[in-house]
Amino acid sequence: MNDRLKKQLHTYKRSLENKKVYASLYTIVLLFTLVIYGFFGVYPLIRVTERKFNTLNELTDLNRRLLKKKANINDTKEALEKARFYTNELESAIPLRPEVEDFMVSLVGEAGSDGYRQRNFYIQDVLDGEVTLRAKLRGSAGQFTFLIADIETMDRLTKINSFRYSLREDTASVEVNLMIYFLER
Fold first, then answer.
1. How far, in Å, CA of 1 to CA of 5, rounded?
2. Looking at domain 94-181, does it have CATH number 3.40.50.2300?
3. Which of 34-48, 95-109, 151-165 has the lowest mean pLDDT?
4. What percentage of the chain has pLDDT greater than the value 90?
5. Rounded to an integer, what distance in angstroms lies between the CA atom of residue 176 and that of residue 138?
């Protein structure tokens, strides 16, 4: 019986030693699993969460700027609605195209009402929303100041760059260099 007891005791000791080996092995596998999970699981989770928070902050900032721009657009829209009331007056003063022919008709009308008639009319230059013109007129010497005043107060925005005035007997010759404007789009 002694042998048998020794054998069982020896078997029990071996199983205890195997259990220690297994416990050590399981502990190593557990630690390895935790390290792998931490490295491949938690670290990427933290990075993804951090990127999502950054994206959320960027979207919040973009939304705030969008709301500001929307408010600005609404303010501009209201100002535009108020300005549309003056559109016709603006287009008569500064049309969308040069419309030199219409200006020439208006100039002849204004000059005619002051006793002047047009001799020549030249378009000198068209550049960047400005048309430079030269008009030669002949008429009554006493009406010269009225002619200049009427040209300056025409519906069409007109700038007198220079003028030359000469008088022979009772007839005045006037050469006027003008600039008219248009909205170039």
1. 6
2. no
3. 34-48
4. 49
5. 11
Per-domain boundaries in the chain: 1-92, 94-181
Q: What is the pLDDT of residues 57-101, one digit of tens each?
A: 999 999 999 999 999 999 999 998 888 888 877 888 888 888 899
Pick from 182, 122, 115, 124: nearest CA to 150:
115
pTM as predicted: 0.55
Question: Residue 185 — very low, low, confident or very high, per pLDDT cuts 50/70/90?
Answer: low
Tell me the average pLDDT of the chain.
87
Angle, vertex CA 68, rays to CA 62 and CA 71, nearest 5: 140
C-alpha 175/C-alpha 118 separation (Å) is: 10
Side-chain-side CA neighbours of 138 within 13 Å: the count stands at: 6
Let me know: does 109 contact 156? Beta carbons within 8 Å. Answer: no
